[in-house]
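User: I'm new to structure prediction. If I give you an amino acid sequence, what do you actually give back? Let's try with this one:
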Amino acid sequence: MVIELTAKVGKGGIVTLQLPPEFEDDEVRITVESTRGSEATSTEEIPWEERPWTKEELEALLTFKGQTGAEIANSPEVGSWAHLGITDPVAWVEEVRRQEEEERKWPRD
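Assistant: Good question. You get back a string of structure tokens that encode the predicted 3D arrangement of the chain. For your 109 residues, that looks like this:
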């Protein structure tokens, strides 16, 4: 049996619902749908950062796309520190660590 009810949502999102006696001691499924109209749920009016992911977008993000060694070596992410003038990454890391250690030392009187 399916019945459709319309209810007003009170403060705090509280809805009081009384079902007919034939639903007593039964399990029911409750679906809530806003009746504000399509303008309230239009994804065009929701900022892109807050839009829900579509199933297709999630599947695309979760699909593994392997790369060959040549593709990895030619990707813009590899060597992205070169514009900083870093020619020896090991020496650069050691220098950064040394500088941070110096900053953490207690000042001498």
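You can read the tokens as a compact description of the fold. Here is one thing that stands out. The chain has one domain: 21-104.
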